[in-house]
Amino acid sequence: MHDDDETPRADRSRTVTWEDPLIGAELAKTMTGLEYMQSLVDGSIPPPPIVHLMQMRLVAVEVGKATFTCDPDESHYNPIGTVHGGLVCTLLDSVLGCAVQTTLPRGQGYTSLEIKVSYLRPVTATTGQLTAVGIVTKPGSRAAFAEGTVHDANGKLIATASSTLLVFPA
What we know:
Layout: H1 21-28, H2 33-42, H3 49-54, E1 56-62, E2 65-70, H4 85-101, E3 108-119, E4 130-138, E5 143-151, E6 157-169
Antiparallel strand pairs: 1-2, 2-4, 3-6, 4-5, 5-6
């Protein structure tokens, strides 16, 4: 409720839609990790639902490297009026995993074993587009290691991460 002299706030809402996530998951089993990631970038395979929910985009891949962008807004806010650190952590976890996937042969998958994130600056709705880059520091057939960064629209470093990922038959 608003007082009579208070201007009502605009309605805030967002609708999230996605395609069947199992389409891409099944196709991933038939391709190398790099082929699969390139298909996500060019749009020939639908992206997983999390990218729509978090407003992320996989924009570039090469062997051992992946780049995402993300457009934070106030729907990502925590109780203290900044973007929740979980958004930045999810962005980093995604870019690190995708970087590792680019190194995997057909029939191999991965999952995060651990991730360490260092938050260096707060993010708000006015921060602008975030760019995350993940780079594999050590590929492997059982475990892989990757490091990542997130920069804001002005190139300022927002967060860094390192991760260990388990590699296994898909």
